[in-house]
Amino acid sequence: MFSVADHLLHIEGDALPLDVDAASVRTLLAGGAACRAPVSGAVYGTLLNDRHALEAMGDAVNAPPYKAPPRAPILYLKPRNTLAGHRARVAVPGSEGVQVGASLGIVIGRAATRVAAREAFDYIAGYTLVADLCVSHASVYRPSVRFRARDNFCVVGPAVISRRHVPDPDRLPIAVNVRGRAMFSATTATNVRGVARLLADVTEFMTLSPGDVITLGVPHGAPVVDADAHATIAIGDWAPLEIEFVAGRAAQGARA
Question: pTM to 2 decimals?
Answer without folding.
Answer: 0.92
